[in-house]
Specification:
The chain is an alpha+beta fold and 345 residues long. The protein has 9 helices and 12 strands. Helix content is 40%, strand content 18%. The strands form 3 sheets. It has a 5-stranded antiparallel sheet. Strands 10-9-8-11 form a 4-stranded mixed sheet. It has a 3-stranded antiparallel sheet with strand order 2-1-3, with no helix packed on it. It comes from Centaurea solstitialis.
Length: 345
């Protein structure tokens, strides 16, 4: 439920409240009406740019309207979609000799994308990397790639099923010296309540680590702080998570996890691994929520199939080059287009 009331200078304040019992919501609403002058907005469907769809089997949250307005604002409504928000083979640098672009427009694009990360963890790493640099042409190209990815996935959001378990689990990971400007490492982490993603982080570390172990320990400490905060919040609801596992993928720490979901916040991936991670987070489009829910193993097998198809296409192109060095480039582009349409890329 959501309610709003007027404040000073013709502004409006909004609050949301909820309960597992409808009669308690009605009682609280009546109490607030007696104390304050306000209006009830009914069942929560939209709040601070977040679209909320409540179903019998779960809740779906996305920002598709915000994405559409953002694409129109920056002239990217007709851009060609991409399958990932960031290139894997090309890393951003300071590009001191690069051509400068409009600084205000660049920062406006970054700010708009930062607000979108409230429901889109899939673009968080790419946005954070672009925010570290000034407005050069190469940096603007990287930001536009994120918009092209959003063009292809405008309705992607987070699905929170109501039949999932309720155990607090955390994942954390770090790269080593990934920032080209100062060689600082990037910390990434995420926390789940059962199969529901409730918190995620991506931040450049404040100090320069001397080893991968040091970088991982710093990241683990940040993740532990977040877990402690969530534990304290859950105590208010009578839930205790004093024994919360934190999965760290590092050889020196001797702790490993095959499905390291925190990788999404520390590095760029190809389309196969990226699709697997996004699906594991509960990310899906508007047209898919409430339907059959694929588990992590199905998502991994699907991503493996995409990688296998991609490898076959590469081998075919290599064989054609050997047999006929002067083969038609237009035929190759047509072949790529057919493969992308078949695999929904």
């Amino acid at each position: 439920m959501s309610i709003s009331w007027p404040s000073k200078k013709d502004q409006q304040d909004d609050i949301i409240f909820g309960s597992t019992k409808e009669e308690m919501c009605k009682a609280f609403e009546e109490l607030m009406h007696k104390k304050f002058k306000m209006s009830s907005m009914g069942e929560l469907t939209f709040f601070l740019g977040l679209q909320v769809k409540q179903k019998s089997d779960g809740i779906f949250i996305n920002q598709s309207k915000y994405v559409a307005s953002m694409l129109q604002k920056f002239g990217m409504s007709y851009a060609k979609p991409t399958s990932t928000p960031m290139e894997t083979h090309k890393h951003l640098t300071a590009d001191v000799e690069g051509e400068e672009v409009d600084f205000h427009n660049y920062r406006s694009m970054i700010g708009s994308l930062m607000y979108l990360t409230a429901s889109r963890p899939d673009i968080m790493f790419a946005v954070c990397v672009c925010a570290r640099y000034q407005a050069k042409e190469s940096h603007l190209h990287a930001v536009k790639r994120i918009f092209k990815y959003l063009k292809g996935q405008p309705t992607l959001g987070l699905w929170y099923p109501n039949d999932s378990s309720f155990d607090l689990v955390a994942y954390t990971d770090s790269d080593y010296g990934g920032a080209n400007l100062d060689r600082k490492s990037t910390s990434g982490g995420c926390q789940f309540l059962g199969g529901r993603l409730v918190s995620w982080q991506c931040k450049k570390q404040t100090t320069i680590s001397q080893s991968t172990t040091e970088a991982e320990y710093i990241t683990a400490s940040h993740c532990c702080s977040q877990v402690l905060w969530i534990q304290n919040q859950m105590l208010d609801y009578g839930l205790s998570f004093l024994q919360t596992p934190i999965y760290i993928d590092n050889n020196s720490l001797k702790v490993h996890t095959h499905d390291q979901f925190a990788d999404l916040f520390t590095k760029a991936f190809d389309v196969g691994r990226f699709t697997f991670l996004v699906t594991s987070f509960g990310g899906r489009g508007t047209e898919k929520y409430g339907k059959r829910r694929e588990n992590v193993k199905n998502a991994q097998s699907q991503s493996s199939s995409l990688l296998a198809i991609a490898k076959i296409q590469v081998w075919r192109r290599q064989i054609r080059q050997v047999r006929n060095p002067g083969f038609d480039q237009r035929a190759l582009r047509r072949e790529k287009a057919v493969w992308r349409s078949r695999n929904g890329l």
